[in-house]
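Researcher: Next entry: UPF0301 protein ABS767_16720 (Sphingomonas plantiphila).
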Amino acid sequence: MEESAYLTGQILLALPGIGDPRFERAAIAMCAHDAEGALGIGIGHRIDGLGLHELLSQFEIEPGAAPDAPVHFGGPVEPRRGFVVHSTDWSGQDTIDVAGRWALSGTVDVLRAIADGSGPTCWLVALGYAGWGEGQLDAEMTRHGWFNVPGDAALLYGTEPERRWEQSFATAGIDPRMLASGGGTA
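Model: Predicted structure:
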């Protein structure tokens, strides 16, 4: 099987010294990446003071069975737009399968399903996303800044958000404390 140069279904990790404070220690679930651009959802940082119940109330949805889970900072693009990264056992009107590893939904039907207990088994909610134009991420991957690892359910749903960055590096056998914030010259 030929390895794809695209990062759909991978976790993109910001390297120390990335140079953009919005992405410091970022862990991003890559949901789409092709010749036209890329879209990922940040999974490593919570939005302070915002839980799922408050978000549901903004849509006049009773929380029902839903726990008051944290809402993640999905990225700096469209920070008021919501997304749910979830297991593939549920699908709604706009759900996208992400390389068979997880799914992405961006409409209110997934929030209603989570609240009434009929939604996906595993999920996380985020506001905003990280986006790259045509060829932009490909170019960034040739310079210091990003590292990618295969995405898996344990990283998405079984690891606390604050630990996803270092745990993702650990899956590749890397201790992020040993990474330099810049490269040398010869």
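Model: Note for the record: Helices lie at 52-58, 108-116, 136-140, 153-157, 164-171.
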